[in-house]
Prior knowledge:
By secondary structure, the chain is an alpha+beta fold. The chain has a domain at 2-47 and 76-147. It has helices spanning 85-101, 129-138, and strands at 2-3, 15-17, 36-46, 56-58, 62-66, 70-81, 104-105, 120-124, 146-156, 161-166. The strands form two sheets. Strands 1-2-3-6-9-8-7 form a seven-stranded mixed β-sheet. It has a three-stranded antiparallel β-sheet with strand order 4-5-10, with no helix packed on it. The longest helix has 17 residues, at 85-101. The chain is elongated. It starts with a strand and ends in a 16-residue tail after the last strand.
Amino acid sequence: MNVKLPGADINQPRLVVGNIALAAETTAPDPDVKNRAVLSLVNIEEDRIAKQQENYTKTNTSTIYKNPPIYLNLYILFSVNRRKYDDSLDFLTSIIRFFQFQNVFTPITHPSLDSRIQKMMVDLHSMSFEQLNHLWSILGGKYYPSVLYKIRQVTLDENAIISESALIKEIQLNDKMKLPVS
Length: 182
């Protein structure tokens, strides 16, 4: 996926979705991530706080049993792999400014957003030097100017109904009920 940003050459997008670890390959670096900003997905976690425990929903006429939706947090890393270091820092600043200005995305504010996504909130996620070291070790060891964001409340719901039943409208009790022995 390529994204055009202001000031980008028409033939060369400046932001690509890809694996930044491939930029440091010594044998065959990926040309798609050379001299660009790269968006990489680095982690997915389930948001258990927002998780619904009920596996059913009630309508006026029935009860529908289905697994509850999964709420995910996505961690995306913007890494800038530009020829000049100061260009990398300028580009990184532009990314941070963008999300400082626009950090909530909904189908109303962004009509091209998938209609199944109700709301996405993008938060800057700060890491300690130790965590940063671990992340870049996993990604191949070579550090690029980067910023990590947490995208909250991405919902996955297959809407696969397990079963459906009618509502209970009356209860009949047996007249010959035994009382407990005391």
